Amino acid sequence: MNIRLKTRIIISVISLLLLGACNDGGYYLQAAKGQYNILKKRQPIAELLASDTLSPQQHLELSRILKIRDFATKQLTLPDNGSYRSYVALDTPYPVWNVVAAPELSLKPETWCFPIAGCVSYRGYFSEVDANEFARDLQNKNFDTLVTGVPAYSTLSWFADPVLSSFSSWPAPSVARLIFHELAHQQLYLSGDSAFNEAFATSVELAGAKRWLSAYGSDQENESFQRQLEREVTFFEWTNSLHQQLTELYSSDLSFSTKRQQKQQILAGARIHYQALKAAWDGYSGYDKWVKSLNNARLVSLQTYRRLVPAFNALLEKNDYNFAAFYQACKELSEQPAEQRQRLLTKVQAIPTLAVREE
Predict the structure, then answer these.
(1) Residue 238 to residue 243: CA distance in whole angstroms
(2) Which H/E stretch holds residue 67?
(3) What is the 3-state secondary structure (H, E, C) of 72-87?
(4) Strand partners, 97
(5) Are 53 and 89 within 8 A, CB to CB?
């Protein structure tokens, strides 16, 4: 069977199953179409490297990506499959835009439930226009929202995820982090627990990047990576303090109007404090966009990725950085009831050392 036709049939069948599972047919249809449009454009990287269609820079970038991909399997025991061995040149800067939302006076994220993925604290669109339209609907219901471009995502082994032009030209450490993160989702995914999944993948991502840089990184790349981790830790500690301030405000007995006013005062003060952080970082501006659109949705999105990372770091250390043993321990943890899982993660919690990936 022609691979394109086979892919179309698979997408169609999955689309019909999803449509039967929920009455939000338009959303699932755009997801099926968007996924198909990416899959049909895949080109094997090995074939591209053997052709004369690439520029010298593209040849270098894709060769490096295959090296990172092999490293992921051989050194990090991540899945050995067709993912990140093909390439797609996108017509847009991102393949997907995620919408995150939280009530105006709450730091509890809005969630949406889907077949396979379970309930997650974001909703993805293959069209930025559609994502913004959905966000506006939520804003009209007094939600704080975040619309953010996503350079890559995992289909959880349903398909061989390709390398995308949205990230292929990034510096090597950043590409390695992203590929390790997305492959970690294929290694282990707990339906309905975004915080578990993202923290697990972030822990793999950063530990894997350290190992990659130890083997192949230049002195400059290693130094830059270490500075970045230090900034990430400082940034998360700052945002975590902000998160606690707002949590206390929202749970207080103050009136709605007073809470709303004090929320804006806290956010304004946070933006001023951020300028001091930038000065300490010699003007580094990598978080400017994040802070400019600072709201509840921004904070809950960060907490989803970051809150449990120290616990997973500690579990990885407990397993002597043996990734296979670490994955098994995390799998056993994922099989525990939610409350027991949280208690166990709290028990192994360590001092924060790693933080969030920037946009």
Answers:
(1) 9
(2) helix 56-76
(3) HHHHHCCCCCCCCCEE
(4) 125, 149
(5) no
Q: Which residues contact 187 (CB under 8 A, 6 or more apart)?
A: 78, 79, 204, 327
Cβ density class 246-270: b for 16+ within 10 Å, e for less: beebbeeeeeeeebeebbeeebeeb
Q: What pLDDT tens digit does each residue of the chain (359 aa) get? A: 455 545 554 555 454 444 444 457 788 889 889 999 999 999 999 999 999 999 999 999 999 999 999 999 999 999 999 999 999 999 999 999 999 999 999 999 999 988 767 888 999 999 999 999 999 999 999 999 999 999 999 999 889 999 999 999 999 999 999 999 999 999 999 998 989 999 999 999 999 999 999 999 999 999 999 999 999 999 999 999 999 999 999 999 999 999 999 999 999 999 999 999 999 999 999 999 999 999 999 999 998 888 899 999 999 999 999 999 999 999 999 999 999 998 888 888 744 444 434 44
**How would you list the strands of the sheet with 123-125, edge to edge?**
123-125, 96-103, 143-150
The single residue listed with the structure tokens 């051989």 is 74
Inter-CA distances, 40 with 54, 86, 88, 177, Å: 20, 11, 9, 26
What CA–CA distances, in Å, run from 223 to 75, 213, 332? 22, 10, 36
With b meaning 16 or more CB within 10 Å and e meaning fewer, what string describes 68-98? bbebbeeebbbeeeebbbbbbebeeebbbbb
**CB neighbours of 3 closer than 8 A, spacing ≥ 6?**
none
**Are 161 and 84 within 8 A, CB to CB?**
yes
Q: How far apart are CA 184 and CA 193, in angstroms?
A: 15
Phi, psi (deg, nearest 5) at residue 163: -70, 140
Strands 123-125 and 43-44: unpaired
Nearest to 79 by CA among 180, 178, 168: 180
In the sheet that holds 43-44, the strands lie side by side as 43-44, 86-88, 163-164
Phi/psi of residue 113, each to 5°?
A: -110, 135
